[in-house]
């Protein structure tokens, strides 16, 4: 029976890493280079994750983002930064979903507040100062709630043009409704005017000429 030759200590220490490819070793010392090994591991993780449908895609353009609101869409610059940070598909979707749920309503409220402040300032200037506007506002509230449907009064009270229409109605003004071609048309009923108010030109774009047509229609419909 032959006697086993003991493995040198140095060789024993090297044995666990003997199968590590040369590209992961330092050419001079033979020691393992951690960074290339880590990079390869992350690349494998990315590829296997992509195969599962929830990894980091090959490019930012490969993110498939779903949004509901028309005011929020996929942003290429944002997607690039998220991709560089190593975000997976589900993580990026979560970013957009949270923005839609939490941030977008706050932005919409802020824009609405700014719009309301702008309308208020125009009315104060139109009626000659805060004190005079306060009195006109009080009179309009009393008259409008007594003479108009609540929904109509509420809608007209949200814009500068609508308030002027209320003021003219309260004082007996009765201009006719004019079409886009400049011709007077037959009287519209309240349902017709409400349909016009559903148009984005009225509630979103605040198109002055379009809003004027609606307010003129109400003045014609409710001349006092």
Structural class: mainly alpha
The shape, in one word, is rod-shaped
DSSP strand (E) fraction? under 5%
- What Rg do the Cα atoms give? 35 Å
| Ends apart, CA distance between termini | 123 Å
Q: How large is the count of helical segments? A: 10
Q: What is the succession of H and E elements? A: HHHHHHHHHH
Which runs of at least 5 residues are low in confidence (pLDDT < 50)? 4-15, 173-186
Count of distinct strands: 0
Averaged pLDDT, please?
A: 76
Helix-residue proportion:
55-70%
Could you describe the largest sheet, including whether it forms a barrel?
none
Write the layout of secondary structure elements.
Layout: H1 9-14, H2 34-52, H3 76-84, H4 89-126, H5 130-147, H6 150-156, H7 160-170, H8 190-197, H9 200-203, H10 208-221
Helix pairs in contact: 4-5, 5-7, 7-10, 8-10
Q: Mind explaining what this structure looks like?
A:
This protein is 60% helix and 0% strand. The protein contains ten helices and no strands. Helix 5 packs across helix 7. The protein is rod-shaped, with a radius of gyration of 35 Å.
Brief characterization of the structure:
Helix content is 60%, strand content 0%.
């Amino acid at each position: 029976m032959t006697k086993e030759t003991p493995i040198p200590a140095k060789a024993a220490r090297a044995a666990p890493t003997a199968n590590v490819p040369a590209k992961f070793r330092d050419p001079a010392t033979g020691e393992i280079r951690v960074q290339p090994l880590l990079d390869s591991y992350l690349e494998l993780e990315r590829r296997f994750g992509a195969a599962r449908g929830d990894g980091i895609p090959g490019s930012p353009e490969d993110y498939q983002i779903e949004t509901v609101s028309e005011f929020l869409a996929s942003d290429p610059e944002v997607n690039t930064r998220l991709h560089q940070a190593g975000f997976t598909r589900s993580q990026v979707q979560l970013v957009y979903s949270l923005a839609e749920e939490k941030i977008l309503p706050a932005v919409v409220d802020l824009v609405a507040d700014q719009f309301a402040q702008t309308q208020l300032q125009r009315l104060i200037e139109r009626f000659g100062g805060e004190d005079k506007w306060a009195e006109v506002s009080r009179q309009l509230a009393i008259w409008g709630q007594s003479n108009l449907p609540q929904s109509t009064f509420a809608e007209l009270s949200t814009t500068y043009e609508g308030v002027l229409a209320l003021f003219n109605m309260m004082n007996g003004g009765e201009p006719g409704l004019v079409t886009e071609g400049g011709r007077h048309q037959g009287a519209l009923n309240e349902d017709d005017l409400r349909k016009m108010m559903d148009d984005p030109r009225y509630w979103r774009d605040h198109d002055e000429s379009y809003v004027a047509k609606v307010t003129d229609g109400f003045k014609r419909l409710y001349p006092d």
